[in-house]
């Protein structure tokens, strides 16, 4: 990756780059938070090997992670923290480990949402021979995809395969969308249609959105900002929109957190707030980019249950990005696998 510009790196590649930069300082102690998050299977194994090798170089490691299964073999001690309380501390053994997660106790009750109609037979998203280059690097190479109304897709592939670039075209967050044949709700960007017309059909959730959201925004404002597709609330909203946002806070179980600052929510609640933000305007397509990344086991179960309830409520199509096959929703019937910007598989989900 040495000759590639930073903007051409995927989220997982950028994660590895930041770790390499930290190691170049030759630290005596490396403090690292959830290094496995966002990495594909090969990169995870490679990272575990690197972390194990640090011990031989005299570098101590303190690693914070949500899943015990992500720990390198060289970890010698384990500190288990839950609800701001130390539950156990001592040598790490290969025994039964931490308690297994329980099933989510929340009952997500969603309304049936009405949205503006889309003519029958018109796909909610379609791209034909999409190609994106950043300098000499090809990020997408002739990708075609057609997502029918209500259809659920999984988007898979290793780090740097082009998944985030593909989503950026659909979201109209990539200026090269104007140089490609990309249509949302049957229309492409051009004279008479703005990116906001395209975003009106879409709901988006990702860890990057969480990382860049203003930390002091109230949770209610987070949900309300879904009407503007903005980071924070910058304009007036109708009484109806305010009521709908309040209702979605109730639907995802955060009605008591409306005045709480976004940064003060626990990780699971932050993702639920962003899920409500993605759904509040009644989108026809949900774009979920590693939605469970960084959550503990119980948080992943709860968020997956909420995602299933939201998708059913909206009767929305879905593109779900993940590196964990076990995380793919049961409703997914179609799969696109990317590798080095090319489509390696496009078709029915295989069991």
How is this structure best described in words?
By secondary structure, the chain is of the alpha/beta class. The protein folds into two domains: 6-91, P-loop containing nucleotide triphosphate hydrolases (Rossmann fold, 3-Layer(aba) Sandwich), CATH 3.40.50.300; 125-348, 3-Layer(aba) Sandwich (Rossmann fold), CATH 3.40.50.300. It has helices at residues 11-23, 41-56, 163-170, 195-199, 207-212, 219-224, 239-251, 267-279, 297-314, and strands at 29-33, 60-64, 77-82, 85-91, 125-134, 137-147, 152-156, 181-184, 187-188, 202-205, 285-289, 317-321, 334-339, 342-348. The strands form four sheets. The protein has a six-stranded mixed sheet with strand order 10-11-12-7-13-14, sandwiched between helices. Helix 7 (239-251) packs across helix 8 (267-279). The radius of gyration is 21 Å and the shape is globular.
CATH secondary-structure class of the largest domain: Alpha Beta
- Net shape: globular
Oligomerization status of the protein chains:
single chain
| Distance separating the two termini | 34 Å
CATH architecture of the largest domain: 3-Layer(aba) Sandwich
- How many individual β-strands? 14
Question: Radius of gyration over alpha carbons?
Answer: 21 Å
Mean pLDDT: 87
Question: How much helical structure, as a percent, in the residues?
Answer: 25-40%
- The fold-level CATH name of the largest domain is Rossmann fold
User: Which structural class do the helices and strands define?
Assistant: alpha/beta
Number of helices: 9
Strand order of the largest sheet: 10-11-12-7-13-14
Q: In terms of per-residue confidence, which ranges show pLDDT below 50 for 5 or more consecutive residues?
A: none
What is the string of SSEs from the N terminus onward?
HEHEEEEEEHEEHEHHHHEHEEE
How much of the polypeptide forms β-strand, as a percent range? 15-25%
